[in-house]
Amino acid sequence: MTAGRHTHREAERAESFGEALLGGFLDRAHELHPDQVGPLVAATVVRLGGRDTQLLLQDYGQRTLIPHPGGGLANGAPLPIERSEAGRCFLTSRPVEVALPDGVRVYLPLLDGGATAGVLALTLDRVTDDDRRVLRRLAALVAGLVRTKDGYTDQFFRTRRSEPMSVAAEIQWALLPPLAMTMPQVAVAGVLEPAYDVAGDSFDYTLNGPFLHLAMIDAMGHGLDAATMATVAIGAYRHARRTSVELEKIYRFMDEAIAEQFAPDHFVTAQMMQLDTDTGRLQWVNAGHPAPLLIRDHHVIGRLEGPTTLPVGFGGAQPEVNERGLEPGDRILCFSDGLVEEHANGQKEFGEEQLITWIHRLDRAERGVREVARDLSHTLMQARDDTTTDDATLVLLEWRGPALDGEK
């Protein structure tokens, strides 16, 4: 190798400023104490010439973004998701820049698997394309770091908890997958209400190869009894699903688990689905749950009706698997009965018609499933004066179409 080629290769391998900055962040992240997440993020932003750094985390009610405390991080009041630039960044999952008298305030979504955990906020004197590229990558590293360290500490939980939380709700939140997932072929988003006192409602999903598996459950009763039943039901669902059994056998396994652990009059309604994201072929088993709504071109075109079986725990007959082909862009709304059976101020039930009316108002082409699910749940809660006598949970699923080349 000539000296000229050797020198050229050395130059190619030399660290750029951005590589050194992000590489230094990664080098420290592996064994970083959770207390040091904030200081590391703030110090990295300072090296970029930034200041007033904030880690804004979504509260469990999905209404505000709360500054996470930590050395080097700026304090501040919680910001409403609905009426703030940080909230706009959070809802759209896109960076937002706001001109200030002394610089530019930059908000970057903390994306992890398509879900947005919060927002990284900072101020620069000016913003270049190089800054934007490095900041976008830094935000991705911060999101992954927060997600990883969250498993080792209560600090992020405490930041996100803006109200006292019941023991039953603590159990349910620990049971849940991420509230949202966005992939090239499929997107999922869920909301639990009341967030700080939910008990019997839960949902679960996973993406195994081309197949999305999704379940929503509603355990009878309230409080710890309902939370315990929900835990057993979701645990049984996951166990059966991980052995790659069919939907009929998943139902049977869940049914036996509830029947063996609880009294004969205890039950769990359930909706279990499997979507082939390559073809749009949807299969489902309904065990006493409200029929999901099919949304096409942002309008409800019908219910996913078909043969049902008894709720889990009652020993129902072998369920019949329902099947339907979806079109790209179709959305499926699964919901618990608390969403439509609640009485507002002692008046008549909400009913599905009112739910459908709000879907038509809120589900628009430019809005993703996470934004629509959140706004739909909150709008219905506000209509009943933010009170409910039952859990009111929804999950919105979108099939985005078959994989394109390079997406698998």
Regions with little confidence, pLDDT below 50 for 5+ residues: 8-13
CATH class of the largest domain: Alpha Beta
CATH superfamily of the largest domain: PPM-type phosphatase domain
Structure class: alpha+beta
Molecular structure report:
This protein is of the alpha+beta class. It folds into two domains: 156 residues, Beta-Lactamase, CATH 3.30.450.40; 234 residues, PPM-type phosphatase domain (Phosphatase 2c, domain 1, 4-Layer Sandwich), CATH 3.60.40.10. It is 35% helix and 27% strand. The strands form three sheets. Strands 3-2-1-6-5-4 form a six-stranded antiparallel beta sheet, with helices on both faces. Strands 7-8-17-16-13-14 form a six-stranded antiparallel beta sheet. Strands 9-10-11-12-15 form a five-stranded antiparallel beta sheet, covered by helices on one side. A hairpin with a 2-residue loop joins β4 and β5. α2 packs parallel to α5. The two termini are 39 Å apart. 41% of the residues are buried. Keywords: Hydrolase. This is SpoIIE family protein phosphatase. One of its GO terms (molecular function) is phosphatase activity.
